[in-house]
Amino acid sequence: MERIWNATATVSRVFAGLGGVLLLVAAILVSAEVISRKLLTMVYSGSDELAAYLFAVGTTWSLAHVLVTRGHVRIDALYGHFPARARAVLDIVALLVLGIVALAMLDRSFDLVHSNFVEWNRSNTPLRTPLSLPQMPWVFGLALFMFSICVALARASIALARGDLATVSQTAGVASQDEEIESELASLGIAFGKHPESAKTNTAGR
Predict the structure, then answer these.
(1) Environment class of residue 133 by beta-carbon count within 10 Å: exposed (0-12), middle (13-18) or buried (19+)?
(2) What confidence tens digit (pLDDT) does each residue in 121-133 have?
(3) CA 15 to mean position of chain CA atoms
(4) Domain edges within the chain
(5) What is the model's pTM?
(6) Which string of b and e fits 12-37 if b means at least 16 CB within 10 Å?
(7) pLDDT tens digits along 41-96
(8) Burial, 49: exposed, middle or buried (Cβ in 10 Å; 0-12, 13-18, 19+)?
């Protein structure tokens, strides 16, 4: 299970990076059209339509990474006051509910892509884009998100059955403030820990 979880985390990180590239390309397309409209007289270029497709795909490709890194928002006003085992159970329940929502999204989106592909429906724009083409990578992101939820649910459930509450928390729990700080510093390439001077001060004071 750990091997599958690590592989899922790696794949989700790769697609999150690709999703970020797509969002950057979308921003460049829109910026270029806005500037050209100011400087030149031009007709409809379709950059806003293409940017919308890129934004949608980039968003779904990032969902799995957000789940794996526990970056999604959770309301934890009462959560922190519960015992560790109760929090672990709530974490699994939250994954189950999220999985139900993700499954419903995946089911409806797959039907949409399938019908657009079979009927070869096109966008009602000058580009006349076949809708199924940008929707295929979009629905792939939702499928990856659903798969990540299933892996996280399996890992957390096995850990709970073994009494390994720490693994449940690391998989589906609410990230602590220290964990969030460590994650932000790691993304900047900065090691998390006490400053050397602070450590000396604490040692001298004992």
Answers:
(1) middle
(2) 998 888 889 999 9
(3) 9
(4) 2-180
(5) 0.80
(6) beebbebbeebbeebeebbeebeeee
(7) 555 567 788 889 999 999 999 999 999 988 876 777 777 788 889 989 989 998 99
(8) middle
